[in-house]
Amino acid sequence: MLQPGLRILAGSRTPSPNWSGALSRFFELSRSTLDSLLADTRGGRLCEPAFLFGRHGEQRMRGDLDAVMAEIDADYPIELRCPFEDTATISGGLWSGRQLFGPRFEDGLAKLRFAAGTLDLPIHVHEHSDRFIAVLAGEGRFWWSEKPWRQFDGTGIRSTPVRTGDVLVFTRNLLHTFSAPESDLLLLSYHSPEIPFDDPRQYTLPSLRWTPGMDGLH
After folding, report:
1. What SS3 class is residue 16?
2. How far is the first Cα of the chain from the last one, in angstroms, to the nearest whole number?
3. What is the pTM of this model?
4. Where are the domains of the chain?
5. Rounded distance, CA 126 to CA 158, Å?
6. Hey, which residues does 109 pair with through a beta bridge?
7. CATH ID of 22-214, from 1.10.287.70, 2.60.120.10, 2.170.130.10, 2.60.40.420
8. How many CA within 13 A on the CB side of residue 131?
9. Which one of 33, 41, 110, 129 counts the least CB within 10 Å of its CB?
10. SS3 114
11. 83-97, pLDDT tens digit by residue?
């Protein structure tokens, strides 16, 4: 069973002293949070796949998200390209940890924009990486299911509204998707490890295709 709605606990690791700038701090924050989550799953305190939800202030993030993103955009401008995961209304760009910080960094950070009216990103899993996601701007919904993805039959789907300042962290193999019915939704999505957007291992669809547009709630 998943553990939705629990407060995310900040990890115990501190940023490396030679790291500076908002992008490197966000990498470290994300990695530390995921380390804590994975430790809880290994220790049996959370079931897998695990999902936690909270607010960015609980992460002791320095400055607000607007300031963090403004600094990242200034230091590391990135082009958002579409389609993302075969959805025309979603665009994305990826900062590679390997390219920015050296070969020992296997994680990546994506900036994703869901245009208002996006209801067609299918529910899917990331079999090979875990996620830490901050909502930078806008509002929408996060959808997930407790079912193993190979047994997904379109039932048991849950959702929660998300808005600016929310953070979500979940382990690989969690069935999930986002929708943005009424406004744009801008996300900062940490991937551990990094898998390029064009790699077929990036995401996996269950045999039954389900999208938020199939639910009257959106």
Report:
1. coil
2. 24
3. 0.87
4. 22-214
5. 18
6. 95, 190
7. 2.60.120.10
8. 29
9. 41
10. strand
11. 998 899 999 999 999
